[in-house]
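Researcher: We're reviewing a set of sequences before deciding which ones to prioritize for further study. For each one, I'd like a predicted 3D structure that I can look through quickly. This is Aldo/keto reductase. If possible, include the structure in token form so it fits the rest of the review sheet.
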Amino acid sequence: MEYRTFGRTGHEVSVLGFGAMNLPNVPLEQAKAALNYALDQGINYIDTAAGYRNSEEIIGESISQRRDEYFLATKTNKRDYKTAKEEIDRSLIRMKTDYVDLLQIHYVNYTKDFNQAMGDEGAYEAALEAKREGKVRFIGITGHRPELLAQWISNGHFDQVLFHLNLPQPFALDALIPKATEMNMAKVAMKPLSGGFVQPVRKAIRYPYSQDIHTIISGMVSVDEVKENLAAVSTPVDDEERISLEQLARAMGTHDCRRCNYCSCPVGIPIPDVMISSKVRDTLGLLPRGKKFYETNRDKITACLTYEPCREKPECEPKCPYHLPMQSVIQAAAGYDAG
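Model: Here's the predicted structure for Aldo/keto reductase, in token form for your review sheet.
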């Protein structure tokens, strides 16, 4: 296992981290086996969040007795002091620990959310208080708007930043990663498979592995998935492979969707998933989860062809900060055969 110094925290973290968001989808014994196998293999970065259903409880039940073996990161999506403080304390109870190594202000995509969290009686105040009390060691921020995150971390208030970095979403390379590097911050790349769409897994993971980040959190749910992810980082990426992966990422990133979720669809289409997976589908093909996504959402996607209020002017597109042609991409996806 390769380890990298986690920015100014000074900790040595495994380049592959364990993302626990999907553990509530599997039986507890399977989750326990995956977590313990990951620790046995040298993975020492565990990522979860208060908002990931009972993920924190699973961690507490599965590996709290091995607490000194891993760097534990969780998140609060509360914006005010009172509820964030309550959530931090609840997270400690759930994970059966006295402290978390990293507490992140979660899913900050709007300026108003950032201002609220950082203002008087905001969530950041609760995080600072928890740090003074020894309940939190470091404070970070997560979000889906890399250009805004680059601005927000420049105030020096955060030790770490969590962002998308995968083949169809290379956008953090432009401003965010350079700014975080300049500030010696801990850099964590999430969703290497872009939510379960990108294949092959090895190629998907080796792209962020080749970049200037410290750890990649992958949402693993079984021993086999841990083995598959470990295999992807078992050998260094040479210059030739890195250049090839970067060229592929530039081509796949032309959809320009950041998953900021500003858009919404009147017929319930998960627009970012369609925007991103359309490019993945046409370039590499989809993982089984991606095919299932199209099977599950077939009727909604097809409804975009005939939904009368959007015929003259689609309701989704004016909400997009990147001015993307979402309607045409979705309507083209209506012709995709997932079989």
